[in-house]
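User: I'll paste a sequence; please echo it back and then give the predicted structure.

Assistant: Echoing your sequence first, then the prediction.
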Amino acid sequence: MSETDLPKTLDVVDILKSLPHRYPFLLLDRVVEFQPGQRLVALKNVTINEPFFQGHFPGEPVMPGVLILEAMAQAGGLLVGLSRPGEAGLCMLASVRNARFRRPVRPGDQLRLEVTAAASVKSVAPRVEARTTVNELVVAEADIMFAFGSVRR
């Protein structure tokens, strides 16, 4: 499949074909923009039904920052993976740098996860700059690096 054959948007069914994550750990609902090798924008609708809200925190539900970071990593992995069709191995999180959490994310928010290639997605260790907003306000950002491999021991 060439880059011109790749879709510019993806629904959750397409995302499930491209990522190994499943409920309750799939944290992307839709891709609204995809420029192969360059940029991807995904959405995550945060609802009170998310399992983590039962304990984080009762009476004051806030999405854990580590899960916002995971959502950014899933968006970055999708950008890298879709930009390298036929690549052997699984695109996995290798490192996170400069992670910053600016505002809390609450039930009813919609995360807009924007990832931009910081190094060639075809390199040995592709990197993305990730930024998450809610209502155009930055809630989190990080630099994320990926590697291809296997989860088997």
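The mean pLDDT is 94. The helical segments are 12-18, 65-83.
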